[in-house]
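Why do we care about 3D structure at all? Because function follows from shape, and shape follows, mostly, from sequence. That is the central idea of this module. The next example makes it concrete: a single protein chain, its amino acid sequence, and then its structure expressed as tokens.
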Amino acid sequence: MTPPVPLLDLQAQYRPLREALLEAVTRVCDSQRCILGDEVLALEHELAAYLGVSHALGVSSGTDALLAALMALQIGPGDEVITPTFSFFATAGCVVRVGARPVFVDIEPATYNLDLDAVARAITPRTKAIMPVHLYGQAVDMAPLMALAEAHGLTIIEDAAQAIGATDRGRAVGGLGTIGCFSFYPTKNLGAFGDGGLVTTNDAALAERLRLLRDHGQHPKYHHALVGGNFRLDAIQGAVLRVKLPHLAAWTDGRRRNAARYRTLVAEAGLADVVTLPYERADARHIYNQFVVEVPDRDRVRAALTARGIGTEIYYPVPFHRQACFADLGHPVDAFPHADRAAARVLALPIFAELTDAQLTQVVDELRAALRPA
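And the structure:
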């Protein structure tokens, strides 16, 4: 039988960097400076340069990046934050955690990102911020969104957890809104050896507030100007990410190359009318944290692929407006048809940079077989 193709093979990325990674980890162990410190500070400078932002602060996770951003903007009870209903749970969960109300909007069917017209309709006197999500590594069309936010005096928190290196009109996402939030979860394009995240901003005052908030609001030690949290990044994660960062551009190019190859293979397989491929904006750069297609009878197709050794995942099967924990928000469950359709049809295929052409061909061959009527 042909060897299976995993959804993600972290070992393939790790093996060529093993010695450099172990050396970096050992350097931290020998220093016994385990939280923040020189490694994290150096990483912050390197990431700020990579993303073209004035300030980048390492935090404990992508979720905590969102939470710190909301806290820094003093968003809380009585405030509303507009978010897409189709995203990873933390996008809406963090809004609730600060006591604010998430206001869900539908997505664009092509990009899976929030629908700008729906955002405009959702603004009320209580709206404090808009939280666009650059889902799957696809940049939101930020220019009209920023114009809308400016017209209503709103802040923008970019959820760029899946989108490090994605660009909108040549500018890196995460540096376009008021605050950007990134995740270094191990499966991300730039992944740590555990949890980690980043907040970015071009506002010096906000950067200082974020710096306080990630360490219980204290400065100097044991003197607390604010009530913050424990959002500090571990030095080992900082050191690991510093080893990986110089390779990120090549890994992203590999993902984009694999995405282009998938398009050719799907067309050659005669599946162009059956499989909906990811949309690519002409003025943006998709970095393919996931390669998400739409297929009919998705669950049956996925089961068939699993049986043939092809790794897949569903991002995401239940939109926010259908989650039990958000039932009391009063959103009509039938009000977001594009999100509901996506949740029923999306399927992520392997896209990591180290995939071979034979593996890509195998995925499409098995997809064609899985799509045959039962």
